[in-house]
Amino acid sequence: MSSIPVPRPGGRSARVQAAVHLATRQLLDERDRADITVPMIAARAGVTPSTVYRRWGDLAELLADVAVERLRPEGEPPDTGSVQGDLVAWADQFRDEMNSDLGRAMVRDVVLGRGVDAADEPCACARFSKSQLEVILERGKARGEQGPEVDVLMDHVVAPIVYRMMFGLPTASQADVRAWVEACVEDAAPRQRAGR
């Protein structure tokens, strides 16, 4: 089970979550992350620190929850007219977001908030990426195109982008992203022809 709390819809709970998230985002924009405390966030949000602790447990979980909301896609991936074009456009945007200062900070917060007990389940960020890739592949199927499996794209496109970012390796370039997507699409084509 995820360590990130799932908000209850509506009512006071939703108002508290919105106020605390807003206060956290504002403080993150104004101060160094290391200087932010739960009492500071609670005061800005107009709630008690015990409300924050009761709902999120600790600062790391709160920062992870805020990061997950910021990483949530705002809409469907761009439609370029082809599966390969859509995958390249999405992956390049993902690369840009993950390699920004904000993207790096959000990923760090999500990883720190999850803890070691959650290592065997996909985090919300992975679920967001998978859902975006599923939209692209379903859209392609509707146009009569086939594409690679979502897990193949996660392993061969998403994973190298995140791995390089997290471990201080050279950032994936646009050319890297294009090559990784092309390799996945080309590798899927013979398997799909054989399966017909």
From TrEMBL:
Feature: DNA-binding region: 37-56
Keyword Lipoprotein set for record: no
Record's keyword terms, sorted: DNA-binding, Transcription, Transcription regulation
Signal sequence interval, chain numbering: none
SUPFAM superfamilies: Homeodomain-like, Tetracyclin repressor-like, C-terminal domain
Pfam families reported for this sequence: TetR_C_11 (PF16859), TetR_N (PF00440)
Residue ranges annotated for the HTH tetR-type domain, each copy included: 14-74
Family matches, as InterPro entries: Homeodomain-like_sf (IPR009057), HTH-type_TetR-like_transc_reg (IPR050109), HTH_TetR (IPR001647), Tet_transcr_reg_TetR-rel_C_sf (IPR036271), TetR_C (IPR011075)
Coiled coil: none
PANTHER family xrefs: HTH-TYPE TRANSCRIPTIONAL REGULATOR RUTR, TETR-FAMILY TRANSCRIPTIONAL REGULATOR
Protein name: TetR/AcrR family transcriptional regulator
Species of origin: Variovorax defluvii
Origin organism lineage: Bacteria, Pseudomonadati, Pseudomonadota, Betaproteobacteria, Burkholderiales
